[in-house]
């Protein structure tokens, strides 16, 4: 009897221990605080929003540039540039006076220099300020397009980038899109004839610093058929290669990006449609050296693209797709994707996009400022909003449903996909809302919504929570950020993001303070 009782007791203890361990392991697996970001590194500046515009630019060397632009107009204005370390320690300050209130248009980082493009009050006149990142010294070069008769009087400058001291500026007129080339050493200006095309034809362009090529993707359509052209140029603006991507009948190529590196290994990755080139049906990939070998992946064949739908709607769309498939038909999708820069890491290419819907009217949902989209531009490893191309609609506002991250191997095969469901995100202008970073073997996606940071952490195509969030941190846990004005959120470097803006911060005791804050958000 004693042996039997002892055996029963041992069995009960073992089962109890296993049950306890099971609950413990489940709790650890589901605990969102395991991935909660750290915000202990932060900076506050005593600035007022009505006095200055402050622009924040993460730099390729993990440092940070702050540009303070005065709000009150005068003939001469003092502009201030400050560079900070990754610990938000001030490295240097550089001040200069600019006359006649020029319009700051865009910034680009190349090597040890920052280029800032300003539009002057006289049409077709502009200047570029070149800032030395090590010393803070600057050099100004003035340009006048009035001297170039081949350019229409209504030419408008868009994005610009720099390759080996050569400046490429995308531009538009009422008749066509074009690219202006400036030799920084000689100050010679020319247009590139091979890039004259239909208005809004320029889909994407970037500087490949590995192969030293300026690469442009043009979208061409007659309303029924859509194809892409990839044109690559030397740094001096001479045509190096021209590749046509012509899909088979019944399919159109909507938009795409090109991978960096050796020409023989380059991939073109983007989206395709069936008929209406405004909407995407799925992803495609092909080799630049073999443009006819196009691989297609319908959204319905991905794992997480439709996670933003309710369980019932998700189930219905897959059931509908199966019915169509049994009839040898494809279920047509009506999604618009805003691409961000293609990134390569550990021999895998990552395509990141946000799904949006243009809308009219107004509502009370949170809106992001539009100015940041226009000026935020770096090389391909530092994403900026890609609002090129004819697939960009004009609307009073844009509602975002979810962000999608896709991983492709060197052969263009889709390895895995994941998505992040966005809630109540509406912008007045089309631009990047969500950013992502690699944190060890995991990926973190995040965006700032009012006074909180919303995020998701996952491993490859695993299923994880979409509703994690933390409040913006103050100097201590007792402080609370009660409002944010002109806020921004960007990926900085590694597993680190940056949240910033004018904020009102309420301590546990005493009066609230209004400051410009920068929070390093680390996963």
TrEMBL record:
It comes from the Bacteria. Keywords: Signal. Residues 1-27 form the signal peptide. The keyword Signal applies. This is DUF5103 domain-containing protein. It comes from Adhaeribacter rhizoryzae. The lineage of its organism: Bacteria, Pseudomonadati, Bacteroidota, Cytophagia, Cytophagales.
